[in-house]
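Issue: ligand-bound run for iron/sulfur cluster - logging full I/O for the record.

Environment: standard queue, default settings, no custom constraints.

Inputs:
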Amino acid sequence: MDKPFPGAAQWARRGASLSELAKALAECRGCDLAENGSRPVFGAGPHDARVMIVGEQPGDIEERRGQPFVGPAGKLLDRALEQAGIDRDQVWVTNSVLHFKFTQSAPTKRRIHQTPDADQVAACKPWLQGQLNRLRPELVIVLGATAAKSLLGPTFRVTRERGTLIPGPPGSGAQLIASIHPSAVLRGSEEERDNMFDGLVNDLRVAASALDKRL
Ligand code: SF4
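Outputs:
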């Protein structure tokens, strides 16, 4: 049997500030993704953000630029947030897994996304928890199954429970809402894409209205 991953806890120190966490991230050897030649991407946004958005992992463009949600899925998310009335500048965006997991196809060497395994997600959780503890957002929006499972456990089903406000992770004091990942919209067929995008916007509107009520 393979040795279990050590997990990120020894690098994502409890009580560390966001800046300290961001600095320590480069040293993380919490799972095998540390060895794939990519660099980890920390969350981004204002330190007093009311909303924290959690996706799956950085993609090719995010890894190159060192910022989350700046590739095609990020641009689609920007549009969806705008239509829902949520200002992205008031949002902290991050991922469940902070390294980019990919396979590389010869001869182009293009890096192709691979979904992280449950043990890689679990290994990376201390980084997510550290950001959550520091930011104390009012609302957490999880996008896609990987983020939902990281924060809500393996039985949570985005397709069944999306668009509904529920209590956030224990001790966070936040509310939480789940929706599909914007990359799922991009992967949808031409006929599906508009409906999927509208569905994402509708879920984000529920989030926006919950924020309005808390003002
Ligand atoms: S994926 Fe997460 S736990 Fe694994 S090495 Fe990268 S930062 Fe550490």
